[in-house]
Each structure stands twice: as C-alpha cells, then as structure tokens.
Amino acid sequence: MLAAGEREKARLEELRGQRAALERQLQETEATRAAAADRLRDTEKAISAAGRKLRALGTEREAARAELDEREKELERTRRQMADRQAQLARLLRYQFRPGSGDALGVLLSGGDPNATQRDRHFLTLLSRAKAELIADLRRDAAETQRLGEVVRQRGERLAEVAQREQAERAALLQRQQERQTALAKLSGQIKSQRQKIATIKQNEQRLGNLIDSLAKKAAQARAAKAAKPATESRAGGAPPPGGKLKAEPTGGTGAFAKLRGKLIAPVKGQVVGRFGTRRDDGQSVWKGLFIRAAEGAEVRAVAAGVVVFADWLRGYGNLLIIDHDDDFLSVYGNNQSLLADVGQKVGAGAAVATVGASGGQPESGLYFELRHRGQAFDPGKWLGAP
Fold first, then answer.
1. 145 in Cβ contact with 75 (< 8 Å)
2. What is the pTM for the complete model shown?
3. How far apart are CA 352 and CA 347, in angstroms?
4. pLDDT in tens, the chain (387 residues)
5. Phi and psi at residue 287, in whole multiples of 5°?
6. Which residue of 166, 183, 257, 296 pairs with 325 in a disulfide if CB–CB is 3.0 to 4.6 A?
7. Which secondary structure element, helix H or strand E, spans residue 300, and what is its range?
8. How far apart are alpha carbons 334 and 372 in whole angstroms?
9. Cβ partners under 8 Å of residue 88, min gap 6
10. 3-state SS, residue 275
11. Rounded CA gap, 230 and 236, in Å?
C-alpha cells in the first residue's frame, strides 16, 4: 500500500510538472503573440501615416495640375492676342508704305493737301510703333507665362516622383503587414483553448471600455470646469458606468445628436456581418457594435459633426478613431488602415476621417463601428439612416 501510495504521489507530481510546463508554453506563446501584435501596431501606424501623406500629395498634385492648365490657357490667349496685333501692324505697314504714297508729284497732281498726307503718315508711324511695342510686351508676357508653366510642370513632376516613392514605401509596409498578420495568425492558431480566446476578446473590450470611460470622464470634467459648477454637481451629471455594458437605447440625451436617431450618416458602404447584441464567433461574447465588411481603402465618414478625441492604435482595434458629439455621445471607428483626422480636430457630418483596413489583427477588411452614451454601448443600427 505504501509503495502504491508513493507511486500515485510521484504520478501526481509528474502531472503537475507537465501542467506547469504546458502553462509556461502557453504563456510564452501568448507573450510572443503580444510582441507580434506590437510589431503589427507599429507597421499599421506607419501605413496610416503613409496613406495620409499620399492623400495630401494627391491634393497638391491636383492643385498643381489645375494651375498648369490655367497657365497653358493664359499662354494660348496671349499667343492669339499677339497674332491679332501682328496682323493689324502688317495692315498698317502695307497702307503706310503702299506704292505711290510717298510721291510728292503724285500728291500735287491729285490736288490733295501735302501737309495732311504727311500728318497721316506721321500718325500711322506712331501707331505702328505703339503696336510694335505692344507686340513686344505680349511676347514678354508669353515668355513669362511659358516660364511659369514650366515651373508648375516641374513641380508636378517632383510631386509625382515623391508620390511614387511614397507608394512604393506604402506597398512595402503593406507587404510587411501581411507577413506579420500571417505570423500573428499562426501564433493565434497555437492558442487553441476557447477560454483564452474569450479572455482575449474580453481584454480588448475592457481596453476600449476603459479608454471610453477615460474620455467620457475628461469630457465631463471639461464641461464642469466650463460651467463653473460645484464638483458635486458635476458628478451628478452621471460619470459613465465602468465596463462599457450593453444598452438597448440611450436615456437622458436631449442635445442635437439625440435628435439624429435614424438619420445618422452611414460611416461606410458595405455589408454588415456582425450585428449589435449577436454572438461572436467564440459563441459566448457578443458584438457591442457593428462590423461592416468593406473594400480596403474606402473612405470612413463621420456619422455626425463632432470633435476627434482619440486617434491612435489600440490592441484588438488597430488604428482607432473616436469622435465626441457632445451630450455624452461618442462614435467609435476601428480596424482602419489610415487615420485622416487628428485629436482636437473638428469634423463635419460626412467628413472623411479614416480609410477602411484590417488593422489590429482583423482577418478581413472592414470597419468596426460603435455608438456609446455615457460609456455604454447601444445599438447603432437603429440610429443610422438609409445607406
């Protein structure tokens, strides 16, 4: 009996050792995955910056092209005007120096006034000289217009070269993103435990919830300071409850945003494949917003006017942007490829604030979109207007 007991005890210790080893391996895999996610974050932030720079270069190139078109039109107008003046001058010269016009005997026999004829010739000479000077001015104008057009053309070519380099760098970044996403997917495949997947989703949601709680508290403090109300009164305004819980409909909203229920601009055109309140792929957690499948690079638009309060990378959500619409309403835009707006920037309804991507480890391109009121997520589908 003693020997059997010792064997069971040894077996138990062996099992404990195996379990500890497996737990260490799991921890190491998760740590490796976290490091890969951080590297992916840096790449996706760089892609966002490159996309934004390319957009600015495109705008500048369009302006240069428009200026060049205007210069070419101006050059053509000047050339036509110069041709008209040259034709007029040629007619004057032909009249002034026509055969017999300078024959004194002919003038005398014709009975005309020699002085008047001389006066006419003098005025014609002055007029032709003035037209010649005008033609010279027009030629100078044409040369200057042509020179400016060449400057604009060269600037457009330089911008095109810069844009080409930026496009090549962006392509390299996208290739690196794909490689890192592949590595990240491989590491994720090694973490087979459903419990770990659920924990990851909950951690991501908690990060977003904490971020939104922090933004909402800052907004409440700013409003309280602006209104110069007592501290107790500002707390009565309702700090957001922790955890970012689901909410069927927001209550207490009376501002401009609350009046837009059912009329909000669709943030992107696409197919809704994850709906508010439905189960996610893990079978236990639920969607707190909408996932809208859309083409990579499509413009993401602000659903209403507001101020950007967050524009950065967040684990699980990639390049994330959050807009404050006042009255404790926030709109959330995640998994973007590029962020086009900065923190503190005022944006109008329908303004392009990002481009669609698959950042944050998302397996397909699309937009993750949430609406929150006092930190609580509520169904955006009932608030969006017709696409």
1. yes
2. 0.61
3. 9
4. 445 445 555 555 555 555 556 666 667 777 776 777 777 788 778 778 877 887 887 787 787 777 777 877 777 777 777 677 667 666 666 665 555 544 444 444 445 555 555 665 666 666 667 667 767 776 777 777 777 777 777 877 777 777 777 777 777 777 777 776 776 666 666 665 545 555 666 667 677 777 877 887 787 777 777 765 443 333 323 333 334 456 668 877 778 999 999 999 999 999 999 899 888 776 667 889 999 999 999 999 999 999 999 999 998 899 999 999 988 999 999 999 999 999 999 999 999 999 999 998 888 999 999 999 988 999 999 999 876
5. -70, 130
6. 257
7. strand 299-301
8. 14
9. 131
10. coil
11. 10
How many angstroms separate the CA atoms of 356 and 333, rounded? 10
Residue 241: DSSP 8-state: P
Question: Based on the number of CB atoms within 10 Å of its own CB, is 163 exposed (0-12), middle (13-18) or buried (19 or more)?
Answer: middle
Task: Please give the angle made by the CA atoms of 216, 324 and 294, to the nearest 5 degrees.
Answer: 120
Return all residues near 68 (Cβ < 8 A) that are at least 6 apart.
149, 152, 153, 156
Tokens representing 337 are: 């490829």
149, amino acid identity? G
Structure tokens at 329: 């309403």
Length, in residues, of the chain = 387
- Cβ–Cβ < 8 Å for 294, 270: yes
CB 335 within 8 A of CB 363: no
Three-point CA angle 151, 155, 161, nearest 5°: 145
Q: CB of 338 within 8 A of CB of 372?
A: no
| Gap between the Cα atoms of 308 and 324, Å rounded | 6
3-state secondary structure of 263: coil
DSSP alpha helix (H) spans, the chain: 2-96, 104-110, 114-190, 194-227, 231-236
- Show the tokens assigned to 332: 């959330």
- Per the CB < 8 A criterion, the answer to whether 370 and 289 are in contact is yes
CA geometry: angle 95, 101, 107, nearest 5 deg: 140
